[in-house]
Each structure stands twice: as C-alpha cells, then as structure tokens.
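Backbone shape codes:
===
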Amino acid sequence: MGWIILIAMVLAYLAYVLISRRLQRRYLTTLSEVDFRAGYRKAQLIDVREPDEFKGGHILGARNIPLSQLKMRKTEIRHDMPIYLYDANGIRSARGATVLKKMGYKNLYQLQGGFKKWNGRIKKG
C-alpha cells in the first residue's frame, strides 16, 4: 500500500512540473546565447543570483536583483522595456519570471543554460 501512495505522489509531482513548464512558456521566452546577446542591450538585464555570486562575475551591463528581493525591488524594474533574466543555470531566472508575471510584467526572456553557459564579456567585482 505504501508503494502505491509513493508512486501516486511521484506522478502528481511530475504532472505538476510538466504543466507548470508548459504554462510558463506562454509568458517566458528562453533564448540561446546568440539571441540573448542580440537583444539584451535594448532591454533591462537582470541577474537574479545572490550578491556574492554576482560579485564573482556577471554579464557586462547587468543589474543584480536577487530572486529573494524581486518583490521588494519591483520599482527598479520598468514595465515598458523587455526584461532579460539570467542566473547560474536557468532555474532561478524562470522562478523570477513567474514572480514578475504575477506583478504584471511582460516581455520576459531568460538565457538558456544561465551564466554557466555564457561565453560573452563578463565583469568581475
């Protein structure tokens, strides 16, 4: 009986993940590095990693607004410009996009693979 409950819980979790990702694709566009690079200079570039990660290196021109502070710092983000998000690997930027969507932001983009996959110019410190 315990196995049945465990299997049901695992299946419910997988269904949740698949449904949430499908819904997320409606408002968040994941861009390759080439496409991200082509558009981020005309957008708000936001690094949602924590400050110590940001100081270790970030995309040139990015602002650091950690995911944990996104709601409190929403006044720093404009509604009339696209928002390009990134983190270390793409998980937190997707969660950040969900938060921003709930606050009424549109034109949300994230870097596929996150900062770990970035080969462009970076700034340290």
